[in-house]
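HTH-type transcriptional regulator: structure, please.
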Amino acid sequence: MPISALRQDFILHFGEMGSRWGINRTVGQVYALLFLADDPLCADDIVGALGFSRSNVSMALKELQSWNLVRLRHRPDDRREFFTTPDDLWEIVRCLIAERKKREIDPTLTKLRELSMTEPDPADRAAHARIAELRQLIEQMTAFHDDLARFETERLVALLNMGARIGRLVDGAGKLIPIRRTKS
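Here you go.
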């Protein structure tokens, strides 16, 4: 299956970014191919398009399934499994955030809670206080995330747009810029 220059550039970029996002190049490229595909693809289609081995494609698809980033589709009279990505970009972003939280933030928060519950040695009181401060901040951010995760997409978009408008009213030091009213 030939890939256009635009798609190829996007796929290669996703592969390069994969390592920065904590996934390997193959997983990034497979996801990018599926993301841009007009129809669901089977593993053989992916192998043909990207030139990866069947085993690498299978491992990439398993990784993407574990992140809930691809959807399995079946076709009548075809035993192969076909894969696609969600059509809704917000669903993809929400999924990525939830999975990163589950894999990175939650274990850290669990450890910080454990450490906060210990009685510190006198020499570690400052370190204990900093750990408690960090735990509290992450708990606040996690609660904020949980609140936002319950928003309907339309309300979340409206909130983001409102934040952008507010951002234009704040200077570099975080102070509100006075609004000058013109006489009518």
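Notes: The first helix runs from residue 5 to 18.
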